[in-house]
Every structure is written in structure tokens, then in C-alpha cells.
Amino acid sequence: MQLLKVCELFAGVGGFRLGLESTGHYEVVWSNQWEPSTKAQHASKVYGARFGTENHSNTNIEEVPTSEIPDHDILVGGFPCQDYSVATTLKNSKGLIGKKGVLWWSIHRILAEKENKPKYLFLENVDRLLKSPSEQRGRDFAIMLRSLSNLGYAVEWRVINAAEYGMPQRRRRIFFLAYHRSSAVFEALEKSSPSDWVLTNGIISSAFPLESDAENTRNFELGRDLVSLSKNFNAGKGPSPFLNSGICVNGKVFTSKTKPCFDGHKAVLGDVLQNGSADPSLYIDADSLPKWEYLKGSKKETRKTRTGFEYSYSEGSMVFPDALDQPSRTIITGEGGKSPSRFKHVVQTSKGLRRLSPIELERLNMFPDNHTKLDGISDAKRAFFMGNALVVGVVEKIGAALFQKIEVLEKQLQS
Known about the structure:
- It contains twelve helices and 16 strands.
- By secondary structure, it is α/β, with parallel strands linked by helices.
- The strands form four sheets. The chain has a ten-stranded mixed sheet with strand order 3-2-1-4-7-9-8-11-12-10, with helices on both faces. Strands 5-6 form a two-stranded antiparallel ribbon. A two-stranded antiparallel sheet has the order 13-14.
């Protein structure tokens, strides 16, 4: 079987590309990375330095005509988590206009306008997507599933914590695959028992096995009209009906609460450390240590707003320093810089307490060492990249399982 051609959107510094191309089954034919909040396009520069600038776009995806995007087999990307509500519909606009600046609709626009639609989608987001917005829990994900269904795609999803499958960071994200009705995978999913697909037969379950029994399941159908769905889905303000695993076929949703099943090697924070070679600037000096201890510690105190209003504030303590015999906490975008912080990682070494290096942060996301090292890119910016990145190992395993499933099904069709 030939390599699958990939279009990578919201590419960042190339986590999807690293994961997919490491399988030997995928080839990125076009990519886009554009950061709206800065003139200096640091992530795009790193991407171009690592993979080349040919067929790489550093333009706002909303302004890129679909005609400029080459045909591809699979569209991938970790798109921003935003408000996905539907603004209006127009008869002459393919039935849909989402809010300007909401980049989900750029994906939708490409899928709607492509004559040769990609057969597969592979997308990633924060797991709160299943529960947003707070006033209509689950509405945003319902809009995505229904809009993809209207475009001819079936979807399977799973919330995956990388550490629960042996990877060195506790990073919980939702990954979802979509299959166009012209694909053999769509046909197989449509014919399968929903619970069997989610638990054993599906692509994500083959990459990341589950315990055999789901704790609970739900079935419901999404109305076809996106405007009505946007206004009315779960308007009663109850909990989201979407659980951590599920599928949606022809607007019909099956979702279940599942548990991971893994008995392999479990990587921990200590495995990624640059023992003896970390930069001296990472070490915490005695003068700033009390501030670190205060921020990491428990608190119960009276605070005052700028307007003079007093209120009670309390929070629990954090492990300080971070445990080396456990997977790390989730990297955040503010991980870099010397200033004391409650959320930055601090490790105890033979030379004292220190923050994590850019290389160690890359290793926690399973990137190659110094992937983000480039002239003009600060260590704080490199940390920011990793706070935004995904765990490459998750993409690699799902990508390999997807290719294998496609290969098996296509061979069955030919025989």
C-alpha cells in the first residue's frame, strides 16, 4: 500500500508529523502553521527548519483558498479549543457560517469545498471539549460530530492520558478519527456493533487497549440542523452526555466510560533527566527558594482585590520537588523562565533543586532532543512550544493502527 498523503493544519512544531512519519506509512504534502498573536512566527520557523519550507504555509488558514491545498488522504491537526457555536445559515453558503476566527470552521470549509475529500481525519484537542461550554455541556462536540456527519464522516473518539499507557507525562487529551463514507473503514464501522468497535475492533482500541467491560453507555441521536443544535443541545444545563470513548455514525452516537488496560513498561520523570549536563541557570538559588516553597505549599489566607474587596483563599499543597519515580505532571505553556511558579516542574538532583531543561520538556512529549533549538528561539519559547504540543507517541501508535486497519480492509475488498 502506498504512503498516505497528509495535510497538517495548526502544525505547531510538528508533533503530528513526527508521530505519523515515524511509522513509515505517511507523507506530509502540505502544512500550515500561523500564530495570530505575534509578528514573529517562531513555531513556523522551527517547523521549516526541521522539515523544510516547501509546501509549508505560514498564512492565516482562514485566508488560504481551498484550491491552494493539494489533495490528501488524511487531514490532521490539533486545533484550538474555542466557542464552536453556529452563528447562522445561508442557502448560498453550503448551509453554514460559524463565528469568524473559530478555526474549526476552517477545517469544515476545506472538507466541504474539496471535490476529492480526504478519506480520513485525525484530530486532537483538550479533553474539556467534551464538556464545553459550561452553559450547554457537550454542545461544542455535538456540533463537530453533526457537522462531520453531514459531510459524510463517521467519527470515533477517546480521551487518552499518555501516562496510562507507559509514556512519561500525564497529559490527557481527546483524539478523534473520522472516516469518509467512501472508505472501507466507514463501511466496517457502520456494520460493527458500537460497543465492539469502541472496546476491541476499532482503531483507537487496537492502539490503546481497554478493559473488556464499559462502566456505562449511552445512545442518542443528533439533530441534523446545526443552528438548532447550537441553540438547544443540552440547554437544561445537565452534565455532558459524552463519555470518554465513543463513536458517531450517521448522527447516531454511542458513548461509554472506559478504562485503560496496560501492563507494559511505564516511563517516569526520572527517565528523561539530563543527569549532570543541565545548564547551571536552571538551578534555584537560596534567595528565591522561599518563594517557590510558598507557591507550592498549601494556603488559607485572606486576599484583597484591586477594589478593596476581601475574600478567603485556600489551596492545597503540591508535591515539591516533583516525584522522579512517577510520570510528570502536564507541561503548561508557562513552564519556561526563572520566576518562581506553582505549576513549573522542579526536580531534586545531586547538585540541588532545578527547573526542567528544554530537552527534558521535549522528552516528556517524546520529541527528539533539541527539536525546538534554533537561533533566536529562547528557552522560554521552547517551553511554550512543549506546553502546546502533543505527545508524539500517542500519534505514532494511532497512526500505525489506522494504516494497518486500512491495509487489512482494502486487502479484504480485493480478495
